Amino acid sequence: MSKTSKKQAAADRKARIEAMRRAEKARERRNRILTITLSTVIVVGLAGWGVYAINSANEKQEQKSAAAKKPISGEKTWDAKKLGRTHVAGTVKYPMNPPVGGNHNQAWMTCNGNVYTKAIPNENAVHSLEHGAVWVTYNDKATKADIQTLADRVAKTPYTLMSPDKTQSGAITLSAWGHQLSVDTAADPRVEKFLTKYVQGPQTPEPGAACTNGLTAS
């Protein structure tokens, strides 16, 4: 091979190497661009998901708060600020029956899922409501099956108590501090809503106060 041919071959080889290097650099640039672009998309996606998750959580919390403030259909309410909370001796004349608050006896009825088979003093039961209990009462209009259903539900629910009350107008009444609901049957879905909402609910004047070691009755 002549010197000219050798020089030409060397030049061609050098040109190929340079072309290969340029191609490699171009691939590296493309890979970097793809990596940066993908990373950006992931970061933006995660940020977007984070915002969505926060907004969704806030929306659910707002809906929950709104639901908590919304009265249950048929529910009666009284201004808690106007319900007395003084401990008194003797009988108290309440403006509603069963009472949902007001001055009461210093001793509360034990309300740790207690089912009383006889009427209990209003003054002691009201003290239980002050502690965040829901008081379930019934009269002769309630069926034996409904009474048993309610008794079973109360028995497994702390901060509840149940007793008969022949003087009330509705067959079944659920009372919490400042709130009351009357229903015809234990199967009414509002019974569960009331218990869920008001057992140690936001209406409780003394949240966390004891429902044990109070008065008991047969």
From TrEMBL:
Segments passing through the bilayer: 33-54
Stretches for region Disordered: 1-26
InterPro entries the record matches: DUF3105 (IPR021454)
Superkingdom of origin organism: Bacteria
Entry keyword Transmembrane: yes
Compositionally biased region (Basic and acidic residues): 9-26
UniProt keyword Membrane, yes or no: yes
Key words, A-Z: Membrane, Transmembrane, Transmembrane helix
Name of the protein in question: DUF3105 domain-containing protein
Organism, as annotated: Streptomyces diastatochromogenes
